[in-house]
Amino acid sequence: MSTKPYGVNELREMFLSFFESKGHLRLPSFSLIPQNDASLLLINSGMAPMKPYFTGEVEPPRHRVCTCQKCIRTGDIENIGKTARHGTYFEMLGNFSFGDYFKREAIHWSWEFLTEVVGLDKDRLYPSIYVDDDEAFDIWNKEVGVPADRIFRFGKEDNFWEHGSGPCGPCSEIYYDRGEKYGCGKPGCTVGCDCDRYMEVWNNVFSQFNNDGQGNYTELAHKNIDTGMGLERTICVLTGKKTVYETDAFTDILAKIAELSGKEYGADEETTKAFRIIADHMRTSTFILGDDRGVSPSNTDQGYILRRLIRRAVRYGMQLGMPDGFTCEIAKVIINQYRNAYPELERNAAFVIDQLTLEEGRFARTLKQGNKEFDKVASRAADGKIDGETAFHLYDTYGFPIEMTVELAKERNLTVDTAGFEEAFRKHQELSHQGAEQKFKGGLADTSEETARLHTATHLLHAALRKVLGDEVAQKGSNITAERLRFDFSFGRKVTKDELAQVE
Ligand code: GLY
């Protein structure tokens, strides 16, 4: 294998210019926050923001496009730091055809890019196809020349791509054999095994159906191509690194964590895991906050995912002995590293830092006490189980997201009654709704009447901004003290004096 010293920046550029040379229009990454798509909380693939182009609902700027899309997948959050390939944030390279080319070109180009441009050894590459997709088999076997016994057929579980509702279809993936030393050594370990030996680097999706969200499939008016190649994962394979955390995507971030904590990455298993979790979660949080449609930490939807990530990073930060304000220091490194590829990070840097300061501060205040409380709870947990009321108490009083309580419990071989937690949560919500007529007292910390008044004023201000400037106005945060209110919002352009006067 020719292991040229590529980094993420070089590979991103190589991919996008290769597909430009094949007639594709290069588009910037779409926002991480989906628009008009209730089936997803966060964009999780290159195709997700382009669903209307696939269905034909919206005419694309060109019928061939390529992107490097910011993506988040938090389904595997517990695996972060354990395996080579898991990260909650990653960049996804993709080439797309909207009713233009189909299987033949997509397969040929993916092979050409991996073997001729990137230089991967073709004897280590294994395609997989959907179980009865003989057309794809013939292209791989007869045209590309991959021997039949190196082409794997998998079922719907592995080789049918869909996430949420919308366009979907059978797919053909390409795996790279990293060699025995990365394997699990179990008998039968081969392509498709869960270990880190055979790493999927490319996915060609033959997007030809629409799923209405209820599991009903209809043929799309035209056939499409949707591909995905994980940037960090491919660099990991290319440079022969053990995990994505050893690639240049993480070098500066890990160095900053080492500097702040005085600990060494790789010192022992626990330390390594903490470094990786902090690095991963901070990258994801920085990209969510630094998005032009960025959200603040909250208890619902994207805001809750963000809160979970920041709080988990803070917990592991405490374990490493990180100083107060460490999340901001790491975010600054991330913004600096990615500001050329994602200029929005720099545009929204003040918001990122503000929100991290607030959220880290909020949680760090209660975390120590919460840890003590958890120790007590764990020592008296009857039948190895933490009941729902107790889990709710940890959430409500100490800000422990339920997933964190479950994770902490697991480390001590305890379980948590999560259904009981939901029940306690619901009961609490009902009670606080009943009491709401307007007992309402502003923020958590400051309960003066003036603060409550200013809190109401932020809502009025937000409404006025939307009335004058339109729905595009998004609240990016507010800061209220007894003396003043500050309201941050995003809007595509500078607001004129006249408009401001109207809002006032
Ligand atoms: N949409 C194809 C993939 O993300 O793998």
Features:
single chain; alpha+beta; 9-stranded mixed sheet; binds glycine
Query: What are the distinct ligands in this entry?
Result: glycine
- Biggest sheet character: 9 strands, mixed
Strand content: 15-25%
In oligomeric terms, what are we looking at?
single chain
Structural class: alpha+beta
Low-confidence stretches: 439-448
Taking all residues together, what is the mean pLDDT? 89
Q: Please tally the β strands and state the result.
A: 13
Question: How do the strands and helices of this protein lay out in sequence?
Answer:
Blueprint: H1 8-20, E1 25-27, H2 51-55, E2 64-72, E3 89-98, H3 103-117, E4 125-130, H4 134-144, E5 152-154, H5 156-159, E6 160-161, E7 166-177, E8 198-211, E9 217-230, H6 231-238, H7 251-261, H8 269-289, H9 301-320, H10 326-338, H11 344-347, H12 349-380, E10 385-386, H13 388-398, H14 402-411, E11 415-416, H15 418-438, H16 449-469, E12 474-480, E13 485-490, H17 497-503
Residues 45-47, 92, 161, 203, 205, 226, 228 line the site of glycine.
What does this 3D model show about the protein?
The protein is an alpha+beta fold and 504 residues long. It is 45% helix and 18% strand. A hairpin with a 4-residue loop joins strand 12 and strand 13. Helix 7 packs across helix 8 and helix 9 crosses helix 12. 40% of the residues are buried. The site of glycine (GLY) has 9 residues, from strand 8 and strand 9. The site of glycine has 9 residues, from strand 8 and strand 9.
